[in-house]
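Continuing from the previous page...

OK, I double-checked the sequence for Lipase against my notes and this is the correct one:
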Amino acid sequence: MSFKTLKLISALVFLTFKRGVATEDSSGTVPSFSSIAETLGYDCVAHRITTKDGYILTLFNIPGNKTRPIFFMHGFGDSSRTFIVRGNTSMLVSVVKAGYDVWAGNMRGNEYSRDHVTLNADIDVAAYWNFSYHEVGVYDLPAQIDYILNKTQQNRLSVISHSQGSAVFFVLLSTYPEYNEKIRPLITLGPLSYAQNIRPPVRLLILIAPVLEVIFKALNQYELFDRTTRLFVELLCSLRPFGGELCEAILLSTAGQSDDTFKGGFIRTVINYYPVSTSVKNSLHVAQNSNSRRFAQYDYGSATNIARYGNTLPPAYDLDKVNCSVAILMANNDKLSPIEDNVMLNNSLPNVVVYEFVERSPMNHYDFVWGEDMYLILHPVILKLLERYQ
Ligand SMILES: *[C@@H]1O[C@H](CO)[C@@H](O)[C@H](O)[C@H]1NC(C)=O
Ligand SMILES: *[C@@H]1O[C@H](CO)[C@@H](O)[C@H](O)[C@H]1NC(C)=O
Ligand SMILES: *[C@@H]1O[C@H](CO)[C@@H](O)[C@H](O)[C@H]1NC(C)=O
Ligand SMILES: *[C@@H]1O[C@H](CO)[C@@H](O)[C@H](O)[C@H]1NC(C)=O
Ligand SMILES: *[C@@H]1O[C@H](CO)[C@@H](O)[C@H](O)[C@H]1NC(C)=O
Ligand SMILES: *[C@@H]1O[C@H](CO)[C@@H](O)[C@H](O)[C@H]1NC(C)=O
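Thanks. Re-ran it with the corrected sequence; updated structure tokens here:
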């Protein structure tokens, strides 16, 4: 069966079921970043920023004290919504309440950053989705940081990053070390870096990534978590009676068990927006790092590597150059950012000022952003770090 046929069937199945299943649930759609902010009573301004290679990104600002800008960066397959989706108990709201000028960035390809000056994400698929977290680090981050510093007339900002949101900063700061001067501190939550000790089942996907790469290429599929995938996810998770529980179980099995990440219907809120699009190339890049045991640039194969990098192997990111103050906050039951990877990260970065677990057990990879009680446990820690290391 071809992929096109599969897409068609899944769309039909979706349309058939949607009426009877999904619309029954009044929480059918989740408000966007700005409407959540506005519902909570905050002004929210969406800024459109164009990178040097033509991607058009959305950067949200909830204005506060202009001398204290904070930049939030989400992780893999996610968007800035992750930091506000918990409503008045969201991390972003705790930081807004503390008076900071809050900026929430978006990586290329996601729900808020799908535009490009010349390419169409739905038509020019091979060219548009030809990026990994490397390009996010070298293009998307400087564009957003420079924009914020210009708007606020400040020399530096603070950063809070979740998951792959940290990897992109390590790329930026090792590639353009002058950006270390512009960041203080960099607070990483469950950072993704070496990715060598990611646990099953994601570990298994990583191991078979070379096979998946061939399949994706044959199917001409460059976008990950595209519209068809979203329809599938929404259909599966809204099937009664156990769709919600099933999706909850899948997410917990990938990120680690936790007591209450999705309790009380929060799974529906999450499923209605997550995961969001990224590129297949981005996931392959993570898998390459993991399988080669090197936190390095994208591996194009030895011939192209020689032409591109002057070496058969892609160059490793030089974490010695990441010398701004970094805080590493970990969860004790995080299958995607496990302790072994963070030990290596801590040993590679020259200026780790805080390296500790968040005091809650069990806590998984998603709890940093989605955990119900984080406003009591994690947010006060973050506010203290911001005060202390700014
Ligand atoms: C803004 O923050 C700066 C630095 O923390 C502080 O000195 C100033 O009083 C704050 N301004 C307002 C209006 O709160
Ligand atoms: C969040 O809002 C709800 C409903 O308005 C309120 O009951 C609750 O106390 C608020 N929580 C916090 C932490 O502000
Ligand atoms: C993708 O990017 C690589 C590296 O910049 C380039 O060599 C290749 O031609 C690009 N592929 C497409 C389809 O644009
Ligand atoms: C800063 O912003 C001003 C006005 O918005 C603009 O004219 C100027 O070119 C910007 N400077 C840089 C370095 O981007
Ligand atoms: C980081 O390294 C640069 C270049 O070596 C140096 O100028 C700067 O002072 C260092 N910053 C810190 C915080 O150590
Ligand atoms: C983190 O790294 C520092 C510097 O290399 C080292 O002194 C410290 O023991 C490390 N902490 C842990 C828990 O490994």
